[in-house]
Amino acid sequence: MKKTKIGVIGCGMISDTYFNAAKRFRNIEIVGCSDIIPERSKAKAETYNIKQMTNDEIFNSPEIELVVNLTPPKVHTEIALGALQADKHTYSEKPFGVDMEDALKVRDLAQAKGLRVGCAPDTFLGGGQQTARKLLDDGWIGKVLSGTAIVAGRGPEKWGQAPFFYDYGAGPMLDLGPYYCTTLVNMLGPAKSVTAVTTKGFDYRTYGAEVAEQYQSQYKPFDRYPVNVTTHLTGVIEFHSGAVITMLSSFDVYQHNHNPIELYGSEGSMIVPDPNTFGGPVKVYRREWQWAEEPTGFREVPIPFGYCSNSRSIGASDMAMAITNNRPHRASGSLALHVLELMLAFDKSSKTGAKVELTTTCERPAPLPLGLEDGEIDE
Q1: Is the pTM of this model over 0.90?
Q2: Which position among 6, 35, 221, 284 has the lowest Cβ density within 10 Å, counted as fewest Cβ atoms?
Q3: How far apart are CA 113 and CA 210, in angstroms?
Q4: What is the pLDDT of residues 231-264, one digit of tens each?
Q5: Domain edges within the chain
Q6: Domain 4-119 grouped into CATH 3.30.300.180
Q7: Which residues of the chain have pLDDT under 70?
């Protein structure tokens, strides 16, 4: 099997997950890494027995075909454009960008050069999400009419990197929303409009005992730092399929008891697992069960798909296989661009006080086939 050689740019918090998960996929191989802090890329290179490189060395390497971009969201566009200009395919951590103008530059350059663009999250390719998708496609709950998508908590306010999560380019929607919105589009198809109200519950948050190195010149343990984004976003997403989903994404909630995603169909209901994970459980309730002699609630469904453990890199592996086999890749740039516009529409709708009609669209990603062995993507 042809191995696509990968260069990783960005060796921060998420990189170990990619370095480790990539080993299980037979069609990709990480051969080099770079970081704005050379000590970080040196440490990863030594740990994973790969080459420490600069960004330019990755861009100019004749063996590297695909650049995996794990930089902070504000830098995603810059790195993606650099990779494309160097005639490399590029796959980015989520989100696709922090504004539509820059994200469209990436899409347009890729199209002009005939190159592929991919983007996380790829958790929708995990066993739990693929099981939910198959149940929907097979009509277990009929036509989806409505549902809820809820991700809420206090956020990472005590983390060493905390100010990043409450600044432009993050917040609950751009940090966690990609998982939920990508899962919804994978199951229901493209969205049509968003009507929303967004707020900020607190102007400042307070650090914990640890302050990351890059923030130590500004903050000491237990200092306050500013909240520069909306932290409670709630609204209604209308899908072209006719489904209407109520979504809540918040860093202003101490505790709640909602399922991550619930779908309500013409023939039953479904509980979809946390889209920030790869596994289950998946639960369904069918209309006819209400007349059973001993009525039951939701029933858990066995998961027939693999990739139920942390499989980040599956999207990059699928993209590499798609390039080799000349087929569409699943965690595509068009999907990520549509999800970005969908997420940004919440604040846009709140500011204007009006429904926002989305201008982008995408195809539903193809489901994974049943019966794959671990490390496989195609049958």
Answers
A1: yes
A2: 221
A3: 45
A4: 999 999 999 999 999 999 999 999 999 999 999 9
A5: 4-119, 124-301
A6: no
A7: 379
